Amino acid sequence: MNLVVDSQLIRPEDYIIGIKDQQLYAIDTRQWHLSRAVELAGVSQVDPVYIYIGEFQQARCYVVELDQAIEEQYLVSLRSQMPQLSDAEYQLASRSMQLITWYKQHQFCGQCGRQTSSHTGELSLTCEPCSLVFYPRISPCIMVLITRGDQCLLAHHFRQSGDLYSTLAGFVEAGETLEHAVHREVLEEVGIKIKNLHYYSSQSWPYPHQLMVGYFAEYDSGDICVDDIEIEDAQWFSRDNLPTIPPEVTLSGQLIREFFAQ
């Protein structure tokens, strides 16, 4: 299956995910669900480029970017839909958003500036003059819940509104392992050292192309000293004094709930 498919090859029973400005097109304006191609037949689309993203319930799935004329009432964020989506639906929606972003940002070769083309037989774009292949970008991010006895360390990030406290997180830098990134981010953001690091789970996070990798770690030494760049406040919390935490559908929310469940 080619990356980009001609619209004439789309069958009425195929699934189409419409996206505009990193938001999903919801036919009923309230709740998003995978829509058949026949349901989106009259929806205005940008020069319709259908990108193949996989299969669902024995039907092919594609994503297409929608025209700017789409009314805001039909657009919903993936975050708002996460609680009611199955794992398969979330994976397809997340994949769709990431592939649309990647496809738009790699229309031209970063080395010679010439236009790229869809590779036949694999998910990539190519620059024929340079013989370069551009695969979908994935940015690994670590996320860690630090524990100390029956307490865990949660932080309020400058970019978060209200009183939401979450786990520590950060991008993996070039040349780092995931484990090195965890230790570095913790030391940089809150000034403490950790030990007994172990993997918990991962989550695709399409804002715009992150792969969140979650860990548990135990406090080792040091006093909390926030960086005042990304972290505004960080404290130790027990079950009895938990602040507002991320929802359970997020990896951060899962880490926190898993710790207190144990």
Explain how this protein is built.
This protein is of the alpha+beta class and 262 residues long. Helices cover 18% and strands 34% of the residues. It has four helices and 16 strands. The protein has helices at 78-81, 87-105, 178-190, 251-261; strands spanning 4-5, 15-20, 23-25, 35-36, 50-56, 59-65, 75-76, 117-118, 125-127, 132-134, 139-148, 151-157, 168-171, 193-205, 210-221, 231-237. Strands 1, 2, 3, 4, 5, 6 and 7 form a seven-stranded mixed beta sheet that branches. β5 and β6 (59-65) form a beta hairpin. The mean pLDDT is 92.
Main attributes of the structure:
single chain, globular, alpha+beta, 34% strand, 6-stranded mixed sheet, 262 residues, 7-stranded mixed sheet, 4 helices, 18% helix
Q: Secondary-structure map with pairings?
A:
Layout: E1 4-5, E2 15-20, E3 23-25, E4 35-36, E5 50-56, E6 59-65, E7 75-76, H1 78-81, H2 87-105, E8 117-118, E9 125-127, E10 132-134, E11 139-148, E12 151-157, E13 168-171, H3 178-190, E14 193-205, E15 210-221, E16 231-237, H4 251-261
Parallel strand pairs: 2-6, 11-15
Antiparallel strand pairs: 1-5, 2-3, 2-4, 3-7, 5-6, 8-9, 9-10, 11-12, 11-13, 12-16, 14-15
